[in-house]
Amino acid sequence: MRTVEHELVGLAGPGGRWRPVAAGPFALLAVALALLPIRPVWLWATLIGVVAAAPWLLGAAPEARRRRPRPYWRLSASGLERIAPDGRTMTSYERSRIEALAITTGDGVLTVFHRFGRTAVGGMTAMGMEPLAVFVTARRLGIPVHVLDGEATDLMDPALDEAMRIPGLDDDAPEGSALPRDHAAEKRLLDQEAALLAAAHEPSDRPSAQPSAQSAGERGRPAGKGKGRGRSRPEHRLDTPEPLPSRRRIALLGALIALLAAVMIVRIAVDGTGGFGARLAAGCWVLAAIAGVLLARRRLLRAAQIHWTITAERLRVRTRPGRRREAQDLPAGDVAAVVVGPGLRLDPVSDVPRRTDLAALAFGHRMELVARLPAHGLDGFQLAHALDDHGYRVITPGTRAPRRPEYGLEGLPEIFAKVPGGRLVVADGGLGWADAAGDVVLKMPEDRIGGIELLTIAGHAWVRLYDTDGDEFFAAPLSALRISRTDLRDSARRAGLPVNDAEYDAYMSAAFHSAVSTLSGAEPVTEPVAGPEPAAAALPSHSAGQEGAAPLPDPAGEQDLAFPVEPPPGPATAPGALLDATRRSRAGTYAMSVLLCEAVALLGAVWLGPELGGFNATASWSVPAGLVIGLVGYWLHDRNRSQLRVSSAGLAVVTRRGKVEWDLPRDRIGGIGIDEARERMPRLVVWGPSGRVLRQVSFPPDLDELRRACERYGVPWGPPDADLPAPPPPEL
């Protein structure tokens, strides 16, 4: 049996990519050269072009590309080491001196406990190592690993010498209380390690799923206990969406900016560079060209696509654009399990490890990390099930805690708890609280009730009470009030109280349309009898009996007798709440539009002022024109602005003129709310039931009104709980 040394190599950039060298200093030098009165003008233009192109020429040099690989971290039997690109050891923590490793949950720092104290090595993300990979590899090497709640600075504080014994790690949690955060994180890592052990030692039914280096005992295991899901499954492809705008358009835009700047500089050189204004315009064009090309390159690097090809024999993952060596081809026999969940990925611009919401770690049959497979941008639900369908063992992080609505029972009167067996009733034209015997001990008269609203929150029926001014003064789940939704709705309507149950009304409307649609689609049934049928059989009416010579209706006339039933309204036409952008955001957009037009007017006066009579003369008419263009232009856009319609049929974004930009039916919506992703600014998005972002709302409506509209019409507020099924609205 051949032993394999356990080794974990941190994620690091491969290097060798063509990138500009010192683009900022060369850009400043090019602008400085453009401002200098260099003679002759052809030398002036040539120097500007050479200096602007120098960063790209230096980046293409072989020596510059070879020096690009970054140092990486390695955890092996030798210890924890940082390896330079040339192979020498920059930092080393020998295995014999390491007593334990600790990962702090507050800042994600890896700390080494040794004989003389403890040392914070660095952040796990910056080191390019995942907590699960470090946890499994270190334990295979015999190094204890602990998860501590807090930050590494707490361990380094000399005043906290009592922390040497690591309190709380070995103590059990008190009875009846939830696990602390560090215990829960360590338990999750232990559970994933146990799942990896089970996958590594469980026999597989795939012929190619056995590891390349097997022992005699492993070859003698029975292989008939698998489920056989990956044998007949066809090839499955998963691709990330194409970037918008496309890579071709981004490259074309960058090339057009550079070409336009070059033409303008040549034109300035031909007209003469004697005046400072001409040289200043040339410097602005140089800066615009360099910035445009750098931004286009940055956008091209970020606009990458990931292509997964999943078969029972192998996994092929390719990132486009990318080099051939970046395409990963992983045989199924080398994979014991695939861990799908949050992980790391290389930043496409700086090649620095960054956190990502979705990544795949492939572990071998000896618990070693075989490959890191990029998966950001894919749907985690589809990826996990596609791997499982083809026979791969998939391990995901533990089930998340269900999200609870931000409502409590603080608004319930104290008498509710003091009356045993009490419940809400409708009595004497108002609402009351009755005891177990049925006697009303607390009554709310009708003149105080301005409205009763029934809605669904987190799968439970709730009631909201409004006063005559329209203000909410009471909200509670019906289960706490011990009354069903149907009883409250029917009894309140019989008593004449104002009740609004939008979900029930939408359900009844849909049921009516589905029932009547069968009448409209049914064809008239006729019996094949010889000779003409009597008129009374075709048209059963008294007028038909009196007019015996009336002509028989043809089949077309019979079709006209069917009831015309319109289809149920869609998300854009169904009655609901129409939410607009807030006044604050609209005013800010107005101001931004005006400021942008004013900036363009001032730059135009600087560039074109020498040719139009001077800067002051040009600015005297360009600045007012920019103000008018900004106001009128945004008014033309604002008069047809988009609005969000929330109804029981779904969500839709419609313009003020009635154009539907997009709509989503209710069955495709898993949630709507704020997406606070770390890689981007918070935004208002619509999720699918699987947690995938379906749509993005480009304008920010009032969040309180949006939440109330979602709860009123049965649209879930907040990200969906992919691990927990959402029950239908109760009692419908």
Which secondary structure elements does this structure contain, and how are they paired or packed?
Elements: E1 8-9, H1 23-35, H2 41-59, H3 62-66, E2 72-76, E3 79-83, E4 89-94, E5 98-104, E6 109-114, E7 117-123, H4 124-127, H5 131-140, E8 145-148, H6 152-156, H7 181-201, H8 216-219, E9 236-239, H9 247-271, H10 276-302, E10 305-310, E11 314-320, E12 328-331, E13 337-346, E14 353-363, E15 369-374, H11 380-389, E16 394-395, H12 414-418, E17 423-427, E18 430-434, E19 440-444, E20 451-457, E21 460-466, E22 472-477, H13 478-481, H14 485-494, E23 499-500, H15 502-521, H16 535-538, H17 542-546, H18 555-560, E24 576-579, H19 583-608, H20 615-638, E25 642-647, E26 650-655, E27 660-665, E28 671-675, E29 683-687, E30 693-697, H21 703-712
Parallel strand pairs: 5-8, 13-16, 20-23
Antiparallel strand pairs: 1-2, 2-3, 3-4, 5-6, 6-7, 9-10, 10-11, 11-12, 13-14, 14-15, 17-18, 18-19, 20-21, 21-22, 24-25, 25-26, 26-27, 28-29, 29-30
Helix pairs in contact: 1-2, 1-10, 2-9, 9-10, 19-20
Compact summary:
With 732 residues, this protein is an alpha+beta fold. It is built from 21 helices and 30 strands.
Any overview of this molecule?
The protein is an alpha+beta fold and 732 residues long. Strands 1-2-3-4 form a 4-stranded antiparallel sheet. A 4-stranded mixed sheet has the order 7-6-5-8. Strands 9-10-11-12 form a 4-stranded antiparallel sheet, with helices on one face.
